[in-house]
Amino acid sequence: MNAPLENDLYLRALNREAVERTPVWVMRQAGRYLPEYKRVRAQAGNFMNLCSNPELACEVTLQPIDRFNLDAAILFSDILTIPDAMGLELAFETGEGPKFGKPIKTRADVDALPVPDPNDSLQYVMDAVSTIRRELNGRVPLIGFSGSPWTLATYMVEGGGSKDFSKVKGLLFSDPKTLHVLLEKNAQAVTHYLNAQVEAGAQALMIFDTWGGVLSPTNYQAFSLHYMQLIVDGLTRQADGRKVPVTLFTKNGGQWLDLMAKTGCDGLGVDWTMDLADARKRAGDTVALQGNLDPSVLYGSPESIRQEVKKVLHSYGDAPGHVFNLGHGIHQFVNPEHLTVMVEAVREFSTK
Description:
The protein has helices at residues 9-14, 35-44, 47-51, 54-68, 81-88, 107-112, 123-136, 149-158, 166-174, 176-200, 217-234, 257-261, 276-283, 302-316, 336-350; strands spanning 73-74, 90-93, 97-100, 142-147, 204-209, 238-239, 242-243, 246-250, 267-269, 288-293, 322-326. The protein is an alpha/beta fold.
């Protein structure tokens, strides 16, 4: 039996309910900027060992909660666990990021991909979710997550990260049918994966569409948003007697917030390239907004961090439905003390 939730500010904000202060968490909050994370990462030997060890994944998930008293924990994992479970042989090269040993090259490769059973090849993720939920003991909600079908496809076709996305965009323009088959499989896999995370104990969900912003408006709708819509339609939205809110985040997707808001999601992540007042107008006050401090602000002085926090809170205004966050993941060279300044400033300036 899971403990009752002591701090539900994050869930209430996503439901656009009145809150005593703006809740705050940080994308990539368990990561390389924390010395305690680096110690556990060294103990694990490599990144995938850390992801696939439920006890160690739990330990690093809780580190930023213990240090900063944030209002939500997010599962420590990686967006590329699904393609790895599909047999693409994920490896993380030191200093190079993720690489797939068997990238997608042909229609036959796509047709051969299985839709993984999350309680089989991804059981280690579910074990991590249930372990974290137990160890949190009701302190704050636990967020589960996945990459979007399009973002997963970029890595699967490129074989890793990319600057110009030539292979996946080449597929989009030369053989869109094959890309749609791949995206359909990815959408099925993500839906099963996120629902299994809810069953294991996740209390909110987030879909990271990191590379949706590299698409043209019509291609964004056809190749990214359409497949996120399929996932939203297929998600478990109630558990433990509460709503399970889902947040969509397309980096560089501010121009499409109105379309994203119509999917039926509960929240939208906003990066730092858009003012939150404009984002609210575009989304029509129908969903909560998460964001959107420029991560580089954390390289500034404590006073400048406080002023930038104040600007973000002011830009959103007094209405309910704001979750404070960075506009993307925290940088690995940030001084953790500067994140403390940010979190304390959010609490100070947003308390009603």
